[in-house]
Amino acid sequence: MAKPDTLKQERMHIRLDALSKQKLERAAAYTHRSLSEFVLGQALHAAEEVIHEHESLTLDQDDWEAFLDALENPPEPTEKLQRALAAHKKRVRKYPE
Questions:
Q1: Domain spans, the chain
Q2: Residue 16 and residue 93: Cα distance in Å, rounded?
Q3: For a surface tag, which of 10, 48, 62, 82 has the fewest beta carbons within 10 Å of its beta carbon?
């Protein structure tokens, strides 16, 4: 039996012109998938690429070493940072767990 989080319970509706639909149906047929499976698969693949592009960071060797050095030897907080932390503490409260 399928897990509750994998059940297909959500629905999306899109409108498109006849030529676009024919093109998608043709591509789906080449991959031996239904139109819905094809469109969903392609959309999810594109979504993963966009998410990866925006949520990952690649550093060259010099930048990586500077990053590690900053982690291992953090600079003293500046006055501006201390003010920002104080303002943060005033605005953000911890809730009991």
A1: 12-92
A2: 48
A3: 10
Is the CATH number 1.10.3470 carried by domain 12-92?
Answer: no
- Scanning the structure block, which residue is given the tokens 């059940």? 7
Cα 74-68-53 angle, rounded to 5 deg: 115
Query: Please, which pLDDT band fits residue 8 given cuts at 50, 70 and 90?
Result: confident
Q: Which residue blocks in 1-97 are alpha helix, DSSP H?
A: 18-30, 35-55, 61-72, 79-91
Q: What are phi and psi of 55, to 5 degrees?
A: -115, 10
- The residue with tokens 């998608």 is 24
Tell me, yes or no, if the pTM score tops 0.85.
no
